[in-house]
Amino acid sequence: MKFNDSIKNIKGIGPQKFKEFLKLNIENIEDLLYYFPRSYEDRTRINSLAESKDQDNSGFVVKVKKIYKDRFIKGKKLIITKALIEDENSIGEAIWFNKPFIKKSLIVGRNYYLYGKVKRNHNMIQIISPDYKLLDNLSFIEQGIIPIYKLTSKLYQKEFRKFINTALKETNSSIVDYLPLELREKYNLCDIKFAIKNIHFPKDYNSYKIAKERLIFDEFFLLQMALKLIKKNNIEKSKGYIFNKFSEVGEFIEKLPFKLTKAQSNVINEIIEDFKSGKPMNRLIQGDVGSGKTIIATIALLIASLNGYQGAMMAPTEILANQHYSSLSKLFQGFNINLCLLTGNMSQQQKKEIIKEISQGKINIVVGTHAIIQKNIQFYNLGLVITDEQHRFGVNQRALLSNKGDNPHIMIMTATPIPRTLAHILYGDLDISIIDELPPGRKPIGTYHISSNLENRLFGFVKEHINSGRQAYIICPLVEESNNIKAESVIELKKYLKNKYFTNEKIAIIHGRLNNNDKDLIMQQFKDGLIDILVSTTIIEVGINVPNANIMVIYNAERFGLAQLHQLRGRVGRGPFKSYCFLLSDNKNKITQERMKIITNTNNGFIIAENDLTLRGPGEILGIRQHGLPELKIGNIISDTEIIQKAKKVCEDVIKSKKFNSIEKHIEKKFLQEINNICLN
Ligand code: ADP
Ligand code: MG
Questions:
Q1: Average pLDDT in the 521-526 region?
Q2: What is the whole-number distance in angstroms between the Cα of residue 284 and the centre of ligand 2?
Q3: Does residue 61 form part of some domain?
C-alpha cells in the first residue's frame, strides 16, 4: 500500500465506515497515519481491584466468574451487560452498555485483561465499559501505551487502532523519508518511519518524545519552506516597477514637524531598496500603536507619485480613511499631487466622477475603504498599494487589490504586532520590517485597573483634566448582540455620565449605527476640541489620532482581548501630555486578574501579544491570516519555539545548498495546489 491509496484498501473499511472516516477528513492512507492520537493510556501497569481508585482509568487482570442476564431499560433504550469478576484479593463487576454481543464473547472461568474507568460505590467496585482481552496464558498482557483518538460516535477506538496498525504494516516498505540522513543527523531528528510508528504506538515515553519532535519539526519545516517557495515564486514570476526618482523626498522629510526616528528611517530605506530592485515589493510593516506608520506610508505614496505611478491606501473603517485623507492632504501641500478619497457612502455622482478620473490617471493617490477594490474601479497605472491595519483584510482581499494593477508594490501595515518568530511563520511569504521604537518624548500611558466603586473619584480626575483643556474617551462595554444594542448602550452610558458627573461638559457619542456624515462630523468636532468627552464603542479602536485626548476609560475591561485593549489604549498618549487609561472591572476571575496585570505592567505591544497568545492560545492568532496552507495538527506555535528555530535553520541549509533540491521538489509536489492558489498572479 502507498500513502495516497484510498483507505478502502484496508480490510474492514467498507462504504459505511468510509463515510465516517470522511467526517474526520481521512481519505487515504497518509491521512490515516497522520491522524494523531488525542491522548494515551498507559496500560503497562496492572492494578488490583482492591486498591483501585474511583474514576481512575486502570488495567486489571481478572477471572470472569459469571455473566448476568442482560437488563433492558426501555425508556432509555439501554441494554446493560454485567459480569462478575475476581482478581487475587477481591471481587467486582464489569459493566457494558448497549453491547449485547459481549455476553457471547466472554467465557466464564477464563482470565481477561480489562481496561476501563473505575467506579466505586460503597463496597462495590465496578469497571465501566472496559476494553477486554482474553489472556491465553497469564504471561501475555496487552502491553504498552495505547493511543486514544478523537473519533465519531460510529467509530471505535479498538478498530481504529487496528486500522492504524494495518496501515503501518502495509506501508512499512514504501515510506521514504524526504529528509536526508545528513540533515537528520546534523539536527538530531529521528527517521519518519520511526516517528509515525511511535506517535501511534510508542514503545516508551522517550520514543514518544522523539517521534513527536520529528512530526512537529515536519509541520513547521514544511510550512516555512512552502512560504519561502511562495515568496520565491511571487517574486521570480513577476517584474516589478522600478522607482528611482527620489528627488523631492528629502525636502518632504525636512519639512515634517518632527524628525523621523531611526526605526522609521530604516524602514523607509528598506522600502526604497524594494522600489529599486525591479521586483514587486511584498512587505509587512509591524509597529506598535503610535510608532508612526502613517508617515512611512505617506512617503512611499509620495515616491510612487514622483515616479509617475498611482498609489492607493486602504483603511478598514471610514473614519480611519477620512483621517488618512485629511492628514495626507496637509502633508502633500505644496507638492503636485492629486489626492482623492473614495468610500462606500459617497453619492453615486461623486463616486462616478472619481472613478473616471482614477481610470484616466488624473488622480495620483486614492485613499479609501474597501470601496477601492470594487469591480467597477480600474486604475490607470497602479504602482503601489498599501493596506493599513492589515488584520482586518483577508489574503483574498489583498489579492484583489493587487490585481487592480500589474504587479504593483504591496505594503501591509499592522498594529497588531506579533513576536518575530511567529511573524516569520504566519507571514513567511512576505518581507518583514519592524518599527521597534516610539517617537521620542512619549511617556508611557499610565494604566490602572480599578473597580467601579472608585468611579466617583475617577470621574473627578477626568473632570480636572478636561478643565485644563484635555479630552477623554469613554469606551462602552463590549456588547455581543446586534448593532442596535450597541448603539443603545452608548446612548444609555452617555445619559448616565451626563446626569451624574458631567453636567457642564460637552459629551458626544459615536457608534457604528450612525451614518457616515454624522460620524465624520463628530470625529472632526472632537479633533477640533469642540467635544470634551467622546463616548464610543470600539469603532475608534484602530488608527484614530487626536493628540489632545489624554484619558481613556474602558468599562467592563474584562470583556476585551488584551491586544484590543492595547489598541484602544493607543488612542491616548499621542501628544505631549501625560496620558492615562483606566480599566474598570469588578471581575474577580483569576485569568482576568492576570490579564489586567499584564496590560497595566507594560506598554509594549509585542510583549502583550506574546502574553495574550499564551493565555488565549494560538488559535486566535492563526485566525488573523489564513495562508491557505494546512493547519498545524501537532505543533504549537507558542510552546514549540525551539523546534521552530531548528526548522528555520534547516530551511536555511536547504535553500543555501543545491544538494537538497529533492526537498524543494517534495514540498512543491505536496503543496502545489496551495502554492498556486496563494501566489498572487
Ligand atoms: P501608528 O503607527 O499607530 O499608525 P501614527 O502614524 O498615527 O501611528 O502616528 C502617531 C503620532 O505620532 C502622529 O501624531 C504622528 O504625527 C506622530 N509621529 C510620527 N512619527 C513621529 C516622529 N518621528 N516624531 C514625533 N512624532 C511622530
Ligand atoms: Mg495607524
A1: 92
A2: 14
A3: yes
